[in-house]
Amino acid sequence: MSLPLKQLEELSLTHWPALNTEFMDGWKLRMANGYTKRANCISTLKSTSKQLHVNIASCEQIYNSVKQPTIFKVTPFSEPQLDETLEKLDYTMLDPSLMLTLDLKQLPHTEPKVKLNETDKLELSLQEHISLRWLEQYCEHSGVDPQYIPTMIDMIAAMPGQVLLASSLLNGETVALAMAVIDQGVVGIYDVITAAPYRNLGLCSHLLWHVLQQCKKQVSLSYLAVLESNTAALSVYSKLGYKEAYHYWYRIKPQLDFDDDVTSL
Questions:
Q1: Could you tell me if 121 and 222 lie in one domain?
Q2: Which residue, 66, 91, 153, 218, could crosslink 86 as a Cys pair with Cβ 3.0–4.6 Å?
Q3: Is the pTM higher than 0.85?
Q4: How far apart (Å, rounded) are the C-alpha atoms in residues 98 and 18?
Q5: Where does the record place the N-acetyltransferase domain (predicted)?
Q6: Which of 174, 172, 178, 175 is nearest to 213 (CA)?
């Protein structure tokens, strides 16, 4: 299955929903209590009818009113002048990232190997319902503040299609996690994390391979986003068959009158 890249970008925004969205001259102003940039940014997939600086100023007013920083997501589908205009307005570039895609027909047939001791017991868990324990474990291993858990629950409840919460348990301990959103013949992979003491053992590859094998029964294409600087993750995804689809990044205008912390990606 192939999918136009702009449609893929639109689908990824749907799969990772904001809790509140305002529409302004073709742009979507997304808000989710500051949890992840992609749910708290301005999506600029459509060209505007007004001058860019006019709409940018209006966006700043709206985000200032809810005490959140103004963040633009810049993709190949944004207006060509947008990034340059934001830079001139002192917006800082953040998190240069890649969108990767995988034709699931190209998923390796062989299960990735995991470096285990003979006595180790590795189990996999796939949950199709919201799990507070899974979210707590994700926060523990990723460093996300647990205060975001209520927002995470609301976002998962708003996700379309089917959501899978996957875990790898080594000798009863959760050591790797991933989320899959299955919708419209596509599966988006989110929240991939391996517990720090268990990295470089192949656990992430092993977990994702099993998740994608499960998803192959329903879909033929997968996507995920990753920071360009995350070479370890890029190596894992490449071995599974993921290929670069397009680049994107964020532009943020620092605010002086409130905490502008927004969790990554």
A1: yes
A2: 91
A3: yes
A4: 21
A5: 102-259
A6: 178
